Amino acid sequence: MYRILGADGKEYGPVTGEVLRQWIAQGRANAQTKVKPEGGADWQTLASVPEFGPDFAPAPGAAPTPPLPTTPAEAKTSGLAITSLVLGVLGLFTCGVTALVGLILGIIALVKVSRSGGRLSGQGLAIAGICVSGLFLLMLPLFAAMLLPALARAKYQAQRINCVSNMKQLGLAVRTYANDHNDQLPPAATWCDAIQNNVGSPKVFQCPSEAGRRCAYAFNAKLDGKKESEVDPQTVVLFESNLGWNGSGGAAQLKPHKHSSRTVNVLLADGAVVPMSRSELGTLRWEP
């Protein structure tokens, strides 16, 4: 009984010597076919086995029969190489995040293909994955340079919206104070203390871009003790400033918050919060 090593690298058998002779006659086995006896340890060519040697002896005067060509087993494409290329391409949609993994897998795939002895294919895919992934990794600083300004603008926009909301709540608290005090506006020197009970949270006095400042707004000093009904609706009541808690003053104390270097938010007596550009500040009304 014999075992046969096929051209595809797989073992077949055991088969009898008679079956082997039929395979030789049919061309399914030739002198170079690898065989070993059942229970044997070493492979040898069929022609070197004494039992089958005569089957391959050339007829007198005839040229020796060349061995039949063997068909190599088809190489398997490396899955790592394919994954590397896919992750590299996805770097276009993930700002290069998947490209780092693609680069590592591409290098591993290239090494494995090179060491497989032909059992693995996909060297080109691995190289393509490395190149594409590396390209997107090199572009990460460019993506960051494009993204960071947009994030900063979004942050400042959110801070501006929050600042406007705070000023509107403070304006409502000022009007509530006036309603409770015979239409009289709070005293300029203590306006924060006067209205704080009408404000839901101390954070309303603070601007998100002015961290650490207890109050980021100032009161129009010329409205000190004035009756609300006698104040022109377009008169400034509150404005952005760095004077702190109970701060009051006028145009000289205006100071834009960090969320906008081009405009200053002011609260008018009619309750509207208006962003004023530097060129428009001279048009503000400070007198009641």
Structure explained in plain terms:
This protein has 288 residues and is α+β, with helices and mostly antiparallel strands. It folds into 3 domains: 2-56; 76-148; 157-283. Helices cover 36% and strands 14% of the residues. The chain has 5 helices and 11 strands.
Rg from Cα? 44 Å
* Arithmetic mean of pLDDT: 84
Element string (H = helix, E = strand): EEHEEEHHEHHEEEEE
> Which structural class do you get from the secondary structure elements?
alpha+beta
Q: Main beta sheet, described?
A: 5 strands, mixed
Are there runs of 5+ residues with pLDDT below 50, and where?
none
Residue share in helix: 25-40%
Overall 3D shape:
rod-shaped
User: Proportion of β residues?
Assistant: 5-15%
List keywords for this structure.
288 residues, alpha+beta, 3 domains, five-stranded mixed beta sheet, 5 helices, 36% helix, 14% strand, rod-shaped
Nutshell version of this structure?
This protein is an alpha+beta fold. Helices cover 36% and strands 14% of the residues. The chain contains 5 helices and 11 strands; from the N terminus they run ββαβββααβααβββββ.
